């Protein structure tokens, strides 16, 4: 399991933070998710780092850029 830090563009409010958090949670094997509005970063642990593309796609589908 590895810790991942992604820069997420387009977040402007707590609703955005919630949307990005839910997008990350939708991918199996993610846990300990923290999304920071001020820095524009999402940090989380993922069981299989091969699934990172699924996380990026989920964030993109939620309307944000990674």
And the CATH topology? Answer: Alpha-Beta Plaits
Q: Mean pLDDT across all residues, rounded?
A: 96
Annotation, overall tally of beta strands: 3
Overall body shape? globular
Termini, distance in Å? 21 Å
Number of domains: 1
Question: Which strand-content bin applies to the residues?
Answer: 25-35%
Catalogue the unreliable spans.
none
Number of helices: 2
N-to-C series of helices and strands: EHEEH
The assigned structural class equals alpha+beta
Largest beta sheet: strand ordering: 1-3-2
The helical percent reads 25-40%
- Give the biggest sheet: 3 strands, antiparallel
Radius of gyration: 10 Å
Task: Walk me through this protein's architecture.
This protein is α+β, with helices and mostly antiparallel strands and 66 residues long. It is 33% helix and 29% strand. The protein has a single domain (2-61), classed as Alpha-Beta Plaits, CATH 3.30.70.100. The chain has a three-stranded antiparallel sheet. The model has no long low-confidence stretch (mean pLDDT 96). Keywords: Metal-binding. Residues 2-66 form the HMA domain. InterPro entries: Cu-bd (IPR000428), Heavy-metal-associated_CS (IPR017969), HMA_dom (IPR006121), HMA_dom_sf (IPR036163). One of its GO terms (molecular function) is copper ion binding.
Please give a quick description of this structure.
Helices cover 33% and strands 29% of the residues. The chain is of the alpha+beta class and 66 residues long.
What order do the helices and strands come in, and which of them pair?
Blueprint: E1 2-7, H1 14-25, E2 30-36, E3 41-46, H2 52-61
Antiparallel strand pairs: 1-3, 2-3
Helix pairs in contact: 1-2
């Amino acid at each position: 399991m590895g810790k991942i830090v992604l820069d997420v563009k387009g977040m402007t409010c707590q609703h955005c933070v919630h949307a990005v958090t839910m997008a990350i949670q939708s991918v199996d094997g993610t846990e300990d998710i923290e999304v920071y509005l001020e820095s524009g970063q999402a940090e989380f642990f993922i069981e299989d780092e091969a699934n990172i593309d699924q996380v990026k796609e989920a964030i993109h589908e939620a309307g944000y850029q990674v």
